[in-house]
Amino acid sequence: MKKILVNEVGPRDGLQNIENILNVEERFDLIKSLEKAGINSLEIGSFVNPKSVPAMANTDVLLDKLSTTKSHYSVLIPNTVGYKAAKKNRVKEICLVLCATESMNMENINKSIKDTIVEFKEIIKMTKQDNIRSKIYLSVAFECPYEGIVNPDYIHELTKDFLCNGVNEVVIADTIGAGKPEQVKKLFNTLVNDFGSSKFSAHFHDTESLAISNVKAAMEEGISKFDSCIAGLGGCPFAPGASGNLATEDLVSMLHKEGVETGIDEEMLRKSAKLAAKLTS
Asked: Which of 109, 124, 213, 218 is least enclosed, having the fewest CB within 10 Å?
């Protein structure tokens, strides 16, 4: 594989679960720093209830400040209300999160999987009408902190359902970092064989120091897009044990050593990591 797309999730996933809440100007500075390093695909915030996730308040103001830049921005939305806010703010890509177990889905968005799927399909239908790109995260795709190992056949079933309903991208998310390389390889082998590789990306946490190994396993099955988070910040606030994401600087360093192109400047990326650490300390 000659080129990998790195999707930076630090400005959303990295900041949503820390004590030191950044203001809009600080969030803007972090994003611009990442862009200077060569990252042009970023998840910059979310339209969620600020009482639940205070760090994501004023994402509309942030989007307005970023309106003149050419990077590809996405935002996370939990429901139809969030979608309407994203549309109002001219968002070009929305991210949905469906947890693969009832317990985790209730913790995350306080809805059953069945009800969530119904609402998400309606949102995806709206994105088609509004010319907005959509992607869905299948969270706890390998293991849930409440219900244990997740059946890969169920992930396949969910994937097929959402692809048939027009979602642009499916992100296989190892939300608590419990996935093993052999599990990752097996799941992606099946998904890619049945649906092709272009519809997929992956999101790994480094809880058990296996994120890089899991990236390599996914790459072997043709996956060429990965989430990562500057300075390894973040983790799901509703998932016990979901420690930091795969650090962008670690991912890029590994890829460059393997001779894979990313378009990212490592020296500038290290500066971004220092800024992220300073802002969040």
From this structure: 213
